[in-house]
Write a structure and sequence with these properties.
Elements: H1 5-9, H2 17-31, H3 40-56, H4 59-68, H5 86-92, H6 94-97, E1 126-132, H7 134-139, E2 141-152, E3 157-160, E4 169-176, E5 179-186, E6 195-199, E7 209-220, E8 229-232, E9 248-254, E10 260-263, E11 266-273, H8 275-280, E12 282-288, E13 291-297, E14 306-309, E15 325-331, H9 339-348, H10 365-373
Subcellular location: Cytoplasm
Family: Belongs to the DnaJ family.
GO molecular function, one term: heat shock protein binding
Length: about 375
Amino acid sequence: MKEDFYEILGISKGASAAEIKKAYRKKAIEFHPDKNPGDEKAEENFKKAAEAYEVLSDPNKKARYDQYGHQAFEGGGFGGGGGMNMEDIFSQFGDIFGGGGGGFGGFSGFGGFGGGGTRTVKGSNLRIRVKLTLEEIANGVEKKIKVKRKKQAQGTTYKTCTTCNGAGQVTRIQNTILGRMQTSATCSTCSGAGQIIDKKPANADAQGMLTTEDTVSIKIPAGVVDGMQLKVSGKGNAAPGNGISGDLLVAIEELPHDSLQREGDNLHYDLYVSFSEAALGASKEIDTVTGKVRIKIEAGVQSGKILRLRNKGIPSINGYGTGDLLVHVNVWTPKSLTKEQKEFFEKMSTDLHFQPNPEKEDKSFFEKVKDMFS
């Protein structure tokens, strides 16, 4: 089970943005690979802190994490901040480490990222919206989506950038009253890739890329929520040269159902029955997310009765079981009657069997509302 992001950074859920940033910087300094050479445990803690900061520093991601935990980003193989490598950390959080090029103050950097080594460039992310029916959400689904993404054009070749000599960064040393100061900045010629175009086809863009249409298979786990975002690593735009591809971010949109209403992991269904069905009892067919089922309505059922069908709702995205289907019974009152029907009900109006006589188990409307929210 993954560690809690707040525990990793040593902060509370009510921590401010400034406190989150301060806590992350403290952890990053403590576990930085240059301070702990060859220490795999320190490197792992360094990555965990970066993963936690990536989520908690973003208000939208933080809100989803607070509500759904790690499952908000890790449904069926997708990651939110998961699987971060050193390229991700040093390129994304350069402002935390100081020195716009990803350096870390007095440290020399790790794997060439802080002190002028080759920087791996990552392609841009792509975002799509996937519409899902309630049935697809309840059962999980694999979607094949056509995505337009940039790929390196065949025949494109690169050569080492002459400005930075392939480092991806330009280092400058200045003499100040405090001594010699070294600063690093991303190379403006190659944008940090360390390579520039040597040859490219005529139909490629300035970076040697072509826009193509790919079919991407996306496995969506059961129980996702409207507005949740999943990530498919490496299915975004490619990066020039030897860079790594960006990610495909998948936003979930839940389509309304004709007869079912979702409330968290529970579902609600309005069932209408006639006077005669309520009095005599009936067998009714209703919709569920796994198909139609038939339920028995007991004789003498009252309007407002709620029937609970266990485990007929939506599976929890956090793995806490499956919700229920709540069937709300409504006795339908006819709006017009024939002469014979009116005469029948007039005769029955004084009959004791037709007089309201609620029993203790017949809960009031307010008691039912209370039960629903408890």
